[in-house]
């Protein structure tokens, strides 16, 4: 994502809610704070050091939205999943040399071992990573898994699509 202006950190959520404004409402974003723009405009509009919680909410695939953290922290995946929704989250901090295994929340329950479950392990086919795999490659493989699950990968069309720059209270 650094090639599109994002910093060395990557924190994002994939939510099985297709309507961007519904996602914004669930995040308690007020409509007067929403700006429609592409990813690069959103990145340029926000200071990553800001204490404000700012995100870019975008369409990903049919029935899926993507929340990219620009500053502050992401909302709780557990709360966002209430009502029977699925939320996946990836956190990668390049400067610290840390990547968390993807989180998965469904209907208010967090599961950090979901990749081992039959429903999701099929999406890990042909991907191999271990303790010696470089972190950028681990991130890329996690993104491949989520692309397979949601049916859409983070690509140039996604980056240039219109999303919602929003401040979360």
What does this protein look like?
The structure is a single chain. It is built from six helices and nine strands. The chain is an alpha+beta fold. Strands 1, 2, 3, 4, 5, 6, 7, 8 and 9 form a nine-stranded antiparallel β-sheet that branches. A hairpin with a 2-residue loop joins strand 7 (103-106) and strand 8. The mean pLDDT is 88.
Radius of gyration: 15 Å
Major sheet size, sense and barrel closure: 9 strands, antiparallel
- Domain count: the total is 1
State which percent range the strand residues make up. 25-35%
Low-confidence stretches: none
What does the overall shape look like?
Answer: globular
Q: What percent of residues adopt helix (DSSP H or I)? A: 25-40%
SSE succession: EHEHEEHEEEEHHHE
Which class of secondary structure composition applies to the elements?
alpha+beta
Query: End-to-end distance, in Å?
Result: 25 Å
How many E strands? Answer: 9
Count the DSSP helices. Answer: 6
Question: Can you describe this structure in just a few lines?
Answer:
The protein is α+β, with helices and mostly antiparallel strands and 169 residues long.
Question: How would you summarize the topology of this molecule?
Answer:
Blueprint: E1 9-15, H1 20-26, E2 35-37, H2 39-45, E3 53-61, E4 64-71, H3 77-80, E5 86-93, E6 98-99, E7 103-106, E8 109-111, H4 118-121, H5 135-150, H6 156-160, E9 163-168
Antiparallel strand pairs: 1-4, 1-5, 2-9, 3-4, 3-9, 5-6, 5-7, 7-8
């Amino acid at each position: 994502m650094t090639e599109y202006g994002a910093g060395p950190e990557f924190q994002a959520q994939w939510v099985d809610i297709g309507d961007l404004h519904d996602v914004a409402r669930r995040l308690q974003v007020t409509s007067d704070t929403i700006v429609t723009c592409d990813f690069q405009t959103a990145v340029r509009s926000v200071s990553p050091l800001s204490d404000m919680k700012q995100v870019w909410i975008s369409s990903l695939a049919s029935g899926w939205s993507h929340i990219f953290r620009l500053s502050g922290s992401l909302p709780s995946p557990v709360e966002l999943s209430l009502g029977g929704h699925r939320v996946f989250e990836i956190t990668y901090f390049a400067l610290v040399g840390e990547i968390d295994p993807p989180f998965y929340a469904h209907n208010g329950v967090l599961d950090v071992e979901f990749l081992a479950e039959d429903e999701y392990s099929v999406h890990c086919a042909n991907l191999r990573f271990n303790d010696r795999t470089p972190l950028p490659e681990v991130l890329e493989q996690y993104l491949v898994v989520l692309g397979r699950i949601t049916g859409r990968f983070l690509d140039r069309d996604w980056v240039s699509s219109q999303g919602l720059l929003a401040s979360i209270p």
